[in-house]
Amino acid sequence: MFLVSNLLFTITNGSGNWDLIVRALWPMVEGAIKYTIPLALVSFLIGIMIALLTAVMRLSSVAIVRAPAVFYVSAIRGTPLLVQLFIVFYGLPSIGLTIDPLPSAVIAFSLNVGAYASEVIRASISSIPKGQWEAGYTVGMTYGTTLRRIILPQATRVSIPPLSNTFISLVKDTSLASLILVTELFRKAQEIAANTFDFLLLYTEAAVLYWIICFLLSIVQEIIERRLERYIAK
């Protein structure tokens, strides 16, 4: 309660604070438009492709195919995202691989999303009744054709809600990219706060912007889920 009252006092204490909020708004929004949202989108799309491949490998009955996928998922899920980001940006140069901040962030986020989303996709594929597979085989479809034409379309409907939540979480996780000098939304807030020393005010403003972005994304998620419900038998 004390923190909230102190924050309200800080915001309403003179027109100077309002001027700072207004002046800081566009740089933060610009950082979100140029880096935060594109970074999340690109990383998510690449991560989904990695996840699909990993999920199929995890479902394989061949141990030599399944083992690398199991190790990859275990390694990524068992280590912090920040550590993964630092390994890509700060660690790889020690072996001669120097990558710019933005591509480093894309690599780290994509690998992270790929591991978590692969479990969602794997569970979605496993949830489809075996009779669907048998139906595909009965009409002469191969494993790959059955997977592509029958199983994946159904699994997609099942996986949309958890994958949407993964994307929303990724949008928030992009703030970690500020630690490797990607000038996204939170990095802009840090730069402005370093000059004005109004950390509470500016970081709160950044938090509100993240909340607005995630709130809008959650609305889109609900619309997509409602549309998909039309194609689910009840």
UniProtKB/TrEMBL annotation:
Chief location category: membrane
UniProt topology in membrane: Multi-pass membrane protein
UniProt keyword list: Amino-acid transport, Cell membrane, Membrane, Transmembrane, Transmembrane helix, Transport
Pfam families per the UniProt record, alphabetical: BPD_transp_1
Localization terms from the record: Cell membrane
Domain ABC transmembrane type-1, residue spans: 33-221
UniProt keyword Phosphoprotein present: no
PROSITE patterns: ABC_TM1
GO molecular function: L-cystine transmembrane transporter activity
GO cellular-component term (any): ATP-binding cassette (ABC) transporter complex
Bilayer-spanning residue ranges: 35-57, 69-92, 200-220
Family stated for the protein in its record: Belongs to the binding-protein-dependent transport system permease family.
NCBIfam families the UniProt entry points to: HEQRo_perm_3TM
Protein name (Swiss-Prot/TrEMBL): ABC transporter permease subunit
Native organism: Gracilibacillus thailandensis
